[in-house]
Amino acid sequence: MTEKKGLVLEGGALRGLFTAGVIDVMMENGIEFDGLIGVSAGAAFGCNYKSRQPGRVIRYNKRYAHDWRYCSVKSLLKTGDLFGAEFAYHMLPDELDKFDVATFDRHPMEFYAVCTDVLTGEPVYKRLMHHGYAMNEWIRASASMPLASKVVAVEGHQLLDGGIADSIPLRFFEQQGYDKNVVVLTQPKGYVKKPNPLMPLLRLQLHRYPKFLKAAAERHIMYNEETEYVARQEKEGKAFVIRPHSILPIKHITHDPELMQKVYEDGRSVMLSRLTELKSFLSES
User: Fold this and answer.
1) Is 280 a catalytic residue?
2) From 3.30.200.20, 3.40.1090.10, 1.25.40.10, 3.40.50.1370, which CATH number describes the 4-278 domain?
3) 155: which of 49, 259, 269, 285 is 20 to 30 A away, CA to CA?
4) Cα separation of 247 and 228, whole Å?
5) Which residue is catalytic, options 40, 51, 72, 144?
6) Per-residue pLDDT at 2 exceeds 90
7) Is 97 a catalytic residue?
8) Average pLDDT of the residues in 132-151
9) Are 184 and 244 in contact (CB under 8 A)?
10) CA nearest neighbour of 240 among 269, 193, 177, 283
């Protein structure tokens, strides 16, 4: 029986440009996966793997780095979303830097986005095989950070950032039958997440969603347990893990195209240095 090969992409807002560099090198070298699951930026950038568009992520992030409609405090004040919902998730892929819908729909790779249901505090794993308005809304929900976004209503769910409930969904993918997984992290080995210092603000903004607040308050516990699990699977040869060598020199948000390019190049460099090793891992039966 052929092993199913999965790609698991952590989020991290613009730290995800490291991931973009990694997956572009994979695409350029013809590396194929049966499925991809992305959280937050991992979903927003990872969808370009199924549409086969290397270079697109870094291109549009640099091009619109100073456009208030893409990402700005002005957008947050005017629309309630730091990353403009209509501009970033609809106008941009539909008109300004076109997403290759035909290729995405035709490619057999399974694509999942992870969101957090604000009513239950539980993860929602949405399989997205065909592009459309609803798919972009699921991806937007996955990447909608608390305090920087409004709750996203889509297909009967009320959703926010998938990283709150499941930051690194390796276990979920294993449960779906993906037994040979590549995991791309945006924090270096040994990174330990601390409790969220913004919880008082979260409680003010999201007081109607106590289960979501509980998940947010405990996120660091979940996250650190998941990184330990990933490390164990890596040690046992069940997962191939790609990480930055050190803390990336980028915050969640930046408007500096040169810094964006540097983080992207870091991802490319790390992946190029491990390409032979990755091909060997994927070819082992």
Assistant:
1) no
2) 3.40.1090.10
3) 49
4) 18
5) 40
6) no
7) no
8) 97
9) no
10) 283
